[in-house]
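Data availability excerpt. The first of two example chains:
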Amino acid sequence: MPDKPNAKGLWLRLIRLIGVIVPSRLRSGWRQEWEAELRYREQQLADWHKLNSKTKLDLVVHSLGAFRDALWMQTYRLEDDMFQDMRYGWRMLLKRPSFTLLAVFILALGIGGSTSIFSAVNPVLFKSLPYPHPERIVSIWDLAPNGSHLDGTFGTYSELLERNRTLESIAVLKRWQPTMTGNFDPELLEGQMVTASYFQVLGQSPVLGRNFDPSENRVNAERVVILSNKLWRRHFNGDPTIIGRQILLDESNYTVVGVMSPMFENVISQQGEVWAPIQYDMSQPRSWGHHLQIVARLLPGVSEKQARNDLSLIAESPIPEFARPPWAALKQGLIVNSLQDDITSSVKPALLAVLGAVLLVLIIACVNVTNLLLARGAQRRGEFAVRSALGAGRSRLIRQMLAESSLLAVVGGALGMAFAELGVAALVALSPPGLPRLDAIRVDGSVLAFGLIVTAFIGLAIGVVPAVYASGRDVQSELRHSSRRTSGGHLLTRRTLVVAEVALALVLLVSAGLLMRSLQRLFAINPGFDSSNMLTMQVQTSAARVDTDVINRFFAEALQAVREVPGVSGAAFTTQLPLSGDYNEYGVRFESESATDSDVGYPAFRYSVSPGYFETMGIPLRRGRLLDAHDRGDAPLAAVISESFARQLDVDPIGKRIHVGPTDRPWYTIVGVVGDVKQMSLAASQTDAVYVTPDQWPFADNARSLVVRSDPDAAALVAGVRKAVWSVDKDKPIGRVAMMSDLLSASAAERRFAMILFEAFGLVALVLAAAGIYGVLSGSVAERTNEIGVRLALGAQSLDILGLILRQGAALTLSGVGIGLLGSWAVTRLLAKLLYSISATDPVTFVGIALLLTLVALIACYIPAQRAARVDPLTALRVD
């Protein structure tokens, strides 16, 4: 039959394969039995055409069984060998505890540092937002004339709600700080006023109760509120009957209609604890004010680009039903960004820079441990030669070295996980204010998986090179030579690794140096005021009290009471406290300007300040006069502008008139010019500002910051100042108590965060690089003891030997420094967004750090060089 030769050939190959894969160790014990079995099977195959069907079936079954047994024996041997390798490797590591502890500690630093940084970066940059289909959630902004993001308006939201074709839902929100009162001390809560669709955009629903109803967005609708799970448990002990009950917020009754899940993460405002419907009417002037954030959820299948095109078309084609005022005409268009990118854009550069830094430290740690293993392998050359002579193959020696490196990595990884827990706690404490998803930073399953992957990778990475060198030696040559000698290739590899360490350490140190110099220059900037001995706190009144006179009277009486506190040398209220995060900007137009097609005016910070504010803050008067007690509500409207704003005019601004906000408001007359003040941050360039008194501002600012100056110690006045405010009204909450110097320091928190971590990693890299140089030179001195003895015996002086070793170390150092300078020139450009007033290739920093690293490296070189210079020639010649 035509298929018989094929079947015969197939089973013949199978039987021969069995003989190949059976382990040599097991086959040696059963050689005769296996050979007889193979001959019998081959004879059967030779007589294949004579066999009946049952015999053929038995032959197939027995062949498959033999094949299974062979595979089982091979697996058993492999497992047995691995177990022996691990057990032997563990014994070898325990024989050299100092080497093992050093290697484990270095790996733990690298693994722990990288894991802790990954735990911070993962939820912010890599994990999706904790909402259903988060890629469909976007932020929508007005585009300002200068190209920056501008808060949206309720009018824009209403128009987009009616006209868009790409959004499934859209919502607006604004910050809300209600005062909760009851049978407890008044508490200022952090919350948001939102449209009813807000939680729909996020794809969330209350765990108790219901969501907002669209009818609750109407003006004068019932006041309802949704609570966060933390607030519900903190104030109401998790009582499920809270639904339908009323609570007092801003002296008004709100009905609780829902409680959010404990798993709900409000990434837009992490401190938010309470939400209420925003009740705007399109007939209200505030409907067109730029003070709202717009978020939306895209329809399924719609991309950001499609939504951007759709909304841009709406912006370019106004319709009579939505008559836009000049300052909200959308002439520049709209910005559509993914919400994920929006909330992470500010911290992304710092986090990526820190992640890069810790990866460099991890690489340096691996290089250092690899060098240690190479040095250890050089001392074990005799052992490996003997094992090879006794029959150990190259693969067995490689497995042995990889087993030892894997054990080091596993122990280092376990200790690194403990370091990671401490590192996460430190990161949370050091993290800059406003770091998104701070509560999500923890050592969770994904972080542990990352740590395990890093550990496994390191176990292979640090063992490959030593394993290859350990297994690639000529047995006879190794047995003839001293175990203390190292071949040229082996030593070259170790020196190359040290050069790499020095280069990577220099990159880290230069980055840390640039950040440190940048921060120094940032704090050298004049903020525009005197921050010393100044206490600040925020005082809140009820937003329900729309009577401007009542609100202004309370603040005036509270200010008078504070000024009478012993130790207070100056006090004032302001609606915006510099460097606190307050942001209130208006369009300002000078009377001398001709009307334009937009009439938006210049964007400027608007401050309502009480008389004495400039004196208390230490803001200098440049010309004209300051606002004083005569600038009451019945007096001519007066304004003071900042020096940068005054430069917008080519003439003296004193006496000129301006509009602040809507042009249908009365004119303010400029009576003075004061120095520029940094409002948002020390690095921000915008300082245009206009100052008015609360009595001459048409709206009531219910939240104001109190600034108090004291000559001895302003921090000691906290209790007295609080008591003075509460003497006027005990139900007014006081929050955000801070020294002005602390706010000044916190304004650069993002840069400080990056700098501290870079400095820590740079210090670790510096120590590891110095240790690497020391280790290589120490090993070289030990391996060249005989050579050094010969040199000394032939007349060489100790200084000659000292110079020889130092030159060797200097060559390694300078090679690493040269490569590191080139690497730093390329890498530090990525830090440009974190630097202020300093170039990413600043020559002073590059040269200074290079000299520092060279000095430390030479100190590390000196110790083994000094030991080499003290070698006794007679002792050295007897070595080996």
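And the second chain:
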Amino acid sequence: PQLSSWYTAGSSKYARLVETDAELLAGTSKTTWTRTSGPNTTSQTLPVYAGPQKIDYSASWIYVKTPDLGPYIMGPWYDNAAKSALFVNIPKNQNIIFRIPRSSTLGAIPTTKTSTLGLNVGGIMQDAVGFYADGVALFDPMDGFSYSGGTEASPGTGQWHRDAYVNEAITFDKGLSHQQNLGKYHNHANPLALRYLLGDNVTFNNTTKTYAEGNTAAPTKHSPILAWMLDGLPLYGPYGYSSPMDANSGVRRMIGGFVLRNGLTTGVDNITTAGRTLPTWALRNNGNVSATGPTVSTTYPLSRYIEDNAYLGDLFKSGSTKYAQGTDFDLNEYNVRYCVTPEFPSGTWAYFLNVTSAGTPQFPYMINRYFYGTPTGGAVTSVAETVTNNFTGGEGLAETPSISNVNTTSGEVTLSWTSLEGGSYKVEASNDLSNWSTLDTYKAATANSAITSLVESNATGAGRRFYRLTRSALTTYDGGTGYTSAAPTVATSTASGIGSSTATLNGTVNGNGLSTVVTFEYGLTNSYGGSTAASQSPLTGSSSTSVSLSLVGFSASTTYHFRVKAVNSFGTTYGNDSTFTTTAVGAAMAPTVVTSAATSIATTTVTLNGTVNANGSSTTTSFEYGPTTSYGSTSTATPSTVTGSTTASIAVAISGLTAGTTHHFRAKGVNIGGTSYGSDQTFTTTAAATEGLTSVVPNSGARGTSVVTTLTLNSAYSTPPPPTTVPPTSITLTRIGAPTITGSSVSRNSTTGVVTVTFIIPAGATVGAYTVNATFGPNTWSLTNGFTVN
């Protein structure tokens, strides 16, 4: 889910906003804007693609690159109820890279909680507490102002924190989001626009252009994942399973654990008459620092501060009976519960969004002012490790074509394709896949749409018809220079690695945005005669790329001509003619080096392999390796010296590596003729092995006896153990070819999580090692050979 839950359907479209209700109703949105009124001047002078633009992952992290702008129409924002003044701030591309833990194995939930205020992760102050599925920042319920000593200040150090939804809602847009002075778009309470896109029981009125909560009493499905918090836990919408561990129990609105301190709920104080004192939940998390708030008045009305809310779990509903989570409400004081969800059928800790039965946001909205887990995720300045790409939006979009309609009566064929806004496309047709005609050279992508179409008339008369699509141009945008595709731009470079019979031909090619086939032509004259594909063919992109070709079989002391040739759908281009002269036989030349695949890959060790031809000169050999193509480490190969003119295998065993990590390496050879490198190769060390159970005590027993055994679950194992309060459904001993032994009198210590079980070992049980299995619902935690029957 950490990879699949991001909303990328709008990542090929520009971010758009409206500044007034009139623009919203008229549908006149903007892709560039400037705010000059008020104290902040903010401009978005170039369009920018909305939503997640890149999603990468490593063994431990998910990285997302985002402009922090929604894929829906943002705005308008006002400063007053009369809507006579625009809000002083307007959004702007933030170009954020953030990360969240990749694994759902987050370890134990900490007893001491981390405040959302002043959070520093990796040396970076974090203002967001999480990020929505569309890449927009999620802020905590506070607006930055706090009360202390008779005044409110921002940033403040007081213990009474203003509620952003209560105090700033006038500045929210139709999706209940706004931006601070630097243009960072964010949401404090309920991302209605995103929820509508995700299908989470939100309606949209196309006349008024407004969102509204659906029927809260009859939701049709479990809410989707709306966001990921910095502690790695998911945030769901307001609707979850009625019974937390039963996916068949029906779906209903989750009931939060907080109520307003107005005296109307049994056991809840009335701070209007009794005065503002901090509630128990605030004292419990702030180190029991008491602070008196201002008297409730028109200046400081009830609900102005988040501390104006009480947590039911601290209060008594009758006599000595307290309100209880799971009976009177669903979510704890951090807005979290442990439950199964569609994405986590085995169970997870998860935040849920709060709305009232009327559909209005309710404190603490999505998260209180403390994280439930340990916040290790957050914004980063760059990706500092090797990652694998999972999604690329914007210019990196891979268009998908289709034939959406064929009208055999009129002969019209409708071609459609996923398109990039700001892009243009060359569309071609053929009857035989050899001869192509151009239907349109620069067909502009449909504005504010992820799909573009083109109709070819009289197409069905051909009997059969083939089509191909090429992005031919892209308008400059915030983050990219744009381009107009054309025939390749080509240059021939100086040859290298020249020996008596060998040479490497070089050049540069810019495919101008198109897939380009690259070859080298060579021969004794500028008529050439030989032609071989370059090592980098075909290539794509809009930047100059080095290309090369290593050849053998030339004659000694001979001059040869060569040039680079590049072909794309817009034409063929040749580089300038160049020459090189092979050396005389016996002249020293650099070694020929090839990097081969790594072998014997383990958790911390590997064997690197390659081949070297010394080309007649004594050659020293080695391997370079490291986390990137900059390598950083070098080890001498075996053999360390190669001579002669035949290819010899080289290798080296490396140890001390990090488990579950991708490493780069290449072979290297040095002689008096020069230095040569093999191509870059990679290998990934295997992940360290883990077991679901860390100990079984005692771990043996005799046939015909009864043994009381304790089992300790491994908290680092994936899937992680359920909370200590959840007992196992069964404990068994299994062995291939032997009857299963089922434990009895199973119990679990709710504090330590240790399981106690009694095994009654049959007198006829098979002697030998058994696997111990602790089953909780659909998952089983095991220890191979963990128990021996004697």
